[in-house]
């Protein structure tokens, strides 16, 4: 189905708003997201509802449509303003266009006229967005389709934090915008693994979350030397109690606007915030050649199945795969019903990198472990590229079919 065009109607006369609403309600592609009766309300609603199109009357009490257009163009430029005025207001119209309006409609207008104008202006602004997007993609470093990668295990101490921090560093080395969230809320150590001093944490974010948007969230993340952004776990375990799955959901939504990848490190429990991670595009389930680890992860897979979590997004990681423990890598398939997606070897530098607070992939890029993790990072990125080209292709085919 085609995208809905989200429209905000601004007019001080209730009857005019009702007429426009009636006309637009017959158009299946248009969704009226709100109505405002003066400029102030229009600005508030534009910021809140982020409409695609604003139908803006010029003459209104308190703040007129021209001033409102000017402010909206600055505050929420994604909304395209169509000014609506009566004949003879040509000077106003000129000023409105200078203030940033994209088109105008002269009253009285026919239903066809208003609908066609909305569709045209929307089409033009979509085209502009696509061009800007294409430029930014070419410029690199731009947010493509953000991916959430959760690193989890039903048992602690298997290498989740080592792996998640190194994947974040590896994606960052490939010019991706990367954030990592530490959802090991009681005893998280992602910030320490990057040798960062912690001031603000997820605890502070949650207290301000209602007021935060994608931009204002960023200062709460601590940047590592190489450029990964870290949302640290609370410094006191008791602060973790405030943080819920709903909070995590919103944080992820905001981070997706400004990052290519969001890596999530987790505790070894299926806590409420961890369960919010059904939004994950990929869940890396970390195993070692250890019977209790495999048993716990088998339970994790069963729970996911019961909760209808999409288990096709789960990828098994076998860490310390070359240790002689009596359990063999081939036993993984028998225990968990899936082949490992990636095997990482034992590495003598793992503890040194953790103690120094420097990802192994940066500290010892030529070590066997770092090379394997680099391959894992490439594997993850290759999956995305394949998927996005598939979805591009299917959209293209769909459009051709429609034409
Ligand atoms: N491939 C490896 N080779 C050697 N040591 C490793 C390897 N993977 C992990 N370790 C070591 O295992 C320990 C636990 O690793 P890490 O803290 O990453 O696990 P975790 O799953 O995050 O643990 P927790 O559940 O406590 O958060 C660390 O001391 C780390 O150096
Ligand atoms: Mg950990």
Outline the low-pLDDT stretches: 136-144, 388-403
Number of domains: 2
Class inferred from helices and paired strands: alpha/beta
In helices, the fraction of residues equals 40-55%
Question: Per the principal axes of the C-alpha atoms, what is the gross shape?
Answer: elongated
Hetero groups in this structure are:
adenosine-5'-triphosphate, magnesium ion
Report the CATH topology name of the largest domain. Rossmann fold
Describe the structure.
The chain has 2 domains: 5-138, Rossmann fold (3-Layer(aba) Sandwich), CATH 3.40.50; 147-399, Rossmann fold. Mean pLDDT is 88; it is low at 136-144 and 388-403. It has an 8-stranded mixed beta sheet, with helices on both faces. A 5-stranded parallel beta sheet has the order 2-1-3-4-5, sandwiched between helices. Helices cover 46% and strands 17% of the residues. The chain has helices spanning 14-25, 39-49, 65-75, 90-98, 111-138, 160-173, 190-193, 202-208, 214-217, 245-258, 272-275, 291-306, 331-336, 350-356, 360-363, 368-402, and strands spanning 5-10, 30-36, 53-57, 80-86, 103-107, 147-152, 178-182, 222-223, 229-231, 261-265, 282-287, 314-319, 340-344. It is α/β, with parallel strands linked by helices. The relative contact order is 0.10. The protein has 16 helices and 13 strands. Magnesium ion binds next to helix 6.
Describe the secondary structure blueprint for this structure.
Elements: E1 5-10, H1 14-25, E2 30-36, H2 39-49, E3 53-57, H3 65-75, E4 80-86, H4 90-98, E5 103-107, H5 111-138, E6 147-152, H6 160-173, E7 178-182, H7 190-193, H8 202-208, H9 214-217, E8 222-223, E9 229-231, H10 245-258, E10 261-265, H11 272-275, E11 282-287, H12 291-306, E12 314-319, H13 331-336, E13 340-344, H14 350-356, H15 360-363, H16 368-402
Bound molecules: adenosine-5'-triphosphate and magnesium ion (MG).
């Amino acid at each position: 189905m085609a995208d809905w065009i989200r429209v905000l109607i601004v007019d001080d006369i209730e009857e005019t708003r009702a007429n426009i609403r009636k006309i637009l309600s017959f158009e299946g592609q248009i969704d009226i997201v709100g109505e405002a009766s003066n400029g102030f309300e229009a600005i508030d609603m534009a910021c809140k509802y982020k409409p695609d199109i604003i139908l803006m009357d010029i003459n209104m009490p308190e703040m007129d449509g021209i001033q409102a257009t000017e402010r909206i163009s600055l505050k929420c430029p994604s909304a395209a303003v169509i000014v609506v005025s009566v004949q003879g207001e040509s000077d106003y119209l000129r000023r409105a266009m200078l203030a940033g309006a994209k088109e105008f409609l002269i009253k009285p207008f026919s239903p066809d006229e208003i609908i066609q104008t909305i569709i045209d202006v929307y089409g033009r602004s979509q085209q502009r967005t696509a061009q800007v997007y294409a430029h930014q993609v070419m410029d690199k470093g731009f947010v493509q389709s953000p991916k959430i990668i959760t690193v989890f295990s039903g048992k602690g101490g298997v290498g989740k934090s080592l792996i998640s921090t190194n994947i974040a560093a590896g994606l960052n080395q490939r010019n991706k915008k990367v954030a990592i969230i530490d959802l090991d809320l009681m005893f998280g150590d992602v910030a320490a693994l990057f040798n960062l001093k912690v001031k603000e944490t997820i605890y502070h974010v949650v207290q301000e979350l209602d007021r935060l948007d994608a931009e204002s969230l960023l200062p709460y993340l601590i940047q590592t030397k190489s450029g990964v952004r870290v949302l640290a776990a609370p410094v006191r375990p008791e602060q973790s109690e405030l943080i819920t799955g709903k909070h995590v959901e919103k944080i992820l939504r905001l981070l997706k606007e400004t990052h290519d990848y969001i890596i999530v490190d987790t505790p070894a429990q299926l806590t409420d915030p961890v369960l919010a991670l059904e939004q994950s595009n990929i869940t890396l389930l970390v195993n070692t050649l250890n019977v209790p680890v495999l048993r716990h992860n088998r339970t994790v897979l069963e729970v996911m199945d019961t909760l209808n979590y999409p288990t096709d997004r789960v990828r098994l990681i076998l860490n310390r795969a070359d240790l002689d423990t009596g359990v063999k890598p081939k036993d993984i398939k028998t225990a968990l019903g899936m082949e490992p997606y990636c095997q990482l070897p034992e590495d003598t530098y793992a503890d040194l990198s953790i103690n120094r607070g420097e990802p192994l992939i940066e500290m010892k890029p030529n070590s066997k472990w770092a090379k394997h993790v680099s391959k894992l990072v490439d594997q993850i990125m290759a999956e995305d590229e394949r998927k996005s080209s598939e979805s591009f292709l299917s959209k293209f085919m769909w459009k051709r079919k429609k034409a």
